[in-house]
Write the structure tokens for this entry.
Amino acid sequence: MSLYLLLAVCGCLTGITTVLFGFGGGFVVVPLLYQLLSQVNAVDSVIGRSAMQIAVATSTCVMIFGALLATLRHQRAGTLDWSQLRPLLGFIGAGAVLGALAAAAVHGDWLRWAFAAYLALTILDCWLRPGFLSQPAEGRAAPSSIATALSGLVIGWIAAFLGVGGSVMTVPLMRRRGIAMGRATAMANPLSLPVALAGTATYATLSAGSTPSFGAWHLGYIDLRATAVLMVGSWIGIRVATPWIGRIPDQAHAKIYLALLVIVLIAMVAR
């Protein structure tokens, strides 16, 4: 029971970070679920060997609910710019299918360290390269169609491969296009939806193939009980955080976002 209570509390945290910072599904759920699965299952057990894949797949499934609900809240708040979003959606979905297939094929430890390495590089990029921590100039030229397609495919592939929804790429991307932090984090939510939908469908389809049997309440790599508990917690967190939409100062918003990434990185490599 304590396990599911902890999942519900962390689901609530996921909802808060999803609606305010555009991430949560992956950067909160993946490290948490990985740690829990590793602690309650033997390292050489079926679930122990696939703990990272289960964490990533379950996170991707939870992301559907969180990203959709947060998108609706931001749409009502008027913080979404669909002219920036529409060109990326299809390419992100296509990349997500490839990323989910790749994640299922690699060793769990490799996936864990890939997750940590990507986080570290993102933190350094946001900290050292101009345009993230400071308010960028607005009105920058829109990228070409080819650049948009490549960006979408790479974002979708990495997001589904690591189970992080793509916000860690889309927020800096929008930020450097001259978009304020509040709107950049808001737009990470609809851009996470194609990752969540395509990735979940791919992970679920694997249940009909060579995926190991993890027992009842699993659909392929997706832990259905953990998914349900996390969704309930996420709903509560999103309701709690909604009144804060648009109220965090721009530079403080960017610094808190970066600090949260550092905390997740520490949690991921501490095991």
Q: What stands out?
A: Residues 53 and 108 are 6 Å apart (CA to CA). The beta strands are 218-219, 222-223. The chain has a mean pLDDT of 81.
